Structure formats: C-alpha cells, structure tokens
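The pair is set out directly below:
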Amino acid sequence: VQLQASGGGLVQAGGSLRLSCAASRRAFNSFAAGWFRQAPGKEREFVAGITWTASSTFYSDSVKGRFTISRDNAKSTVYLQMSSLKTEDTAVYYCAASRYSGTPMRVQEYYFWGQGAQVTVSS
C-alpha cells in the first residue's frame, strides 16, 4: 500500500489546515490509520489515529480538542483537520497504516508510511 499525503503549508497561529492521505489500494480500508509528526531534532510522535471501521478515534494529549481525524473508505483516504494551530505544531506530518487491531499509537505498530507533508505555523 502506498500512501500520498497532501495539504500541508504555511498558516498563522490560530488558523486551520486539512491534511489528506490517499492510499493506492483498497486494502488500506481494512487497516487502522494514523498521523504522526516530526519536528527538527525531535523524534517522530503520534498525533491521531482511527480504526479501520472509523468506530474509534484517538489523539495525543497535545492535539486533543483541536485536531480531528476522519476517513472515507470509499475514497481510501484519511484526513486530519487541524484547528487552533500553534507554533509548536510546526513539523513534517506523516500518515501511516497499521495492521494492528485496537488503537495503535506507536511508530513500531505502523507498517506503511507516506512521504510527509510540511506544516509550518507562524506567530
């Protein structure tokens, strides 16, 4: 499964952006999906995840209440709606797919990765 992330860009603090992640195969629809981010000099960290049925979503504490993950399995696409953006949200954002059941939140639990989308939040 190949994943293609898009929608990154430059936005002012307090603004919004929506990231999209399109999968090359419908097999993606049976995987949990997640978004991670990596800022310069920092480790890749979990941001948000969604089960393959979309029955459950889960977030890191740093984005809970500001970000929303969703998916459209008819389009084999996962979205990350980001609102009330802060300068500390600046990072490269990666989408990923996991064969794990439940609520995977660790990098090691994700097998397929997209190429990353830069999000820069200015003050």
The radius of gyration is 13 Å. The CA atoms of residues 20 and 79 lie 5 Å apart. The chain is about 0% helix and 50% strand. The longest strand covers residues 91-98.
